[in-house]
Amino acid sequence: MISILVPAYNSERYVAECLSSALRQTYRDFEVLLIDDGSRDATCQIGYEFMKRDPRIQVLSQSHKGVSAARNAGLDMARGDVIFFMDSDDTVVPDTLEALMNQMVSQRADMAFGQYGRTENGFHGSKEWEKGERAWFRLDEREAADLFSQNNRLFGGIGGKLIRKESIGKLRFEEGLSLGEDTWFLYSLMEKGVSAVYTTDAMYYYRKHKGGSWALRFTLEGILASGAVFKRMERMEQNYGRMEHARFWEGEYVRILKRAMDCLPREELYQMRNAVIQEMKNPYFRQRPWRIKGTVLLAFFCHPLYCWGKGWKRTIKRLWGGENDKTVS
Hints:
Layout: E1 2-8, H1 15-23, E2 30-37, H2 43-53, E3 57-62, H3 67-77, E4 82-85, E5 91-92, H4 96-106, E6 111-118, H5 123-126, E7 136-139, H6 141-148, H7 152-155, E8 162-164, H8 165-168, H9 181-192, E9 196-206, H10 213-216, H11 220-240, H12 243-263, H13 266-270, H14 273-280, H15 283-286, H16 290-301, H17 303-328
Parallel strand pairs: 1-2, 1-4, 2-3, 6-9
Antiparallel strand pairs: 4-8, 5-9, 6-8, 7-9
């Protein structure tokens, strides 16, 4: 049996569609554990309404402790020997569980997953789903761990992952992390040694909205949390002597710095100065082009000049674009 874990917090706008998506699965042997993390809206009531209609749905309630604690509660309560992770504002195509389970069994893998698609109004409301052939790729334990530290965006987050419960074992999500907890969980899982099978086709559809974890990515709290996870993995890979992997995670950290430069106000950027000073001492960062190093320096230590440079760059692009448009016409 598959246990579908759905942590939810103030998700009344989306949770019904999420649960309906689970119930539409062509694979029928599953339970859905909706873990209500102290919601102050109708999330829990909606869950109970679904539970009355289908006994495979169970609602667990707890005080507000965060998504990691909710997932951990689900892992402790799950009766299935295989775990599928969903977020309460996401949906999956109807044959997701069937396809992933078939590949996991036939290829003797510990984990199976597809790729992500983005949706605004729910997958089933915007396009027609058709069951078709997909190309699948298998990774042994070492290949999966290596690829995760070379292209972790192929893996994405924890949503949409089908994982054998025995492979998870006692591993749990770190409850002190406000963001990046799923990346650290997957990294820790890879280090335990798990084989994987995946397809490059989209099977799991997520939303970007103000109330979700996506919005947290663009706050100081979220940027600091994500950055701390990337630096932790960089240090781990250095300790293991896997320098190319360490370089990759340092690059992910620099990507977080760029996100901060694009979305945070000057006062919050200046709060990150000590971390940026430490990063500037990093041998990997020192090897980066002066254009990147100079931009980081300006953004975190001379923000008005950084903003002036961005404005000037936009002006040049507009002028250049105007010249191109004139030439074309």
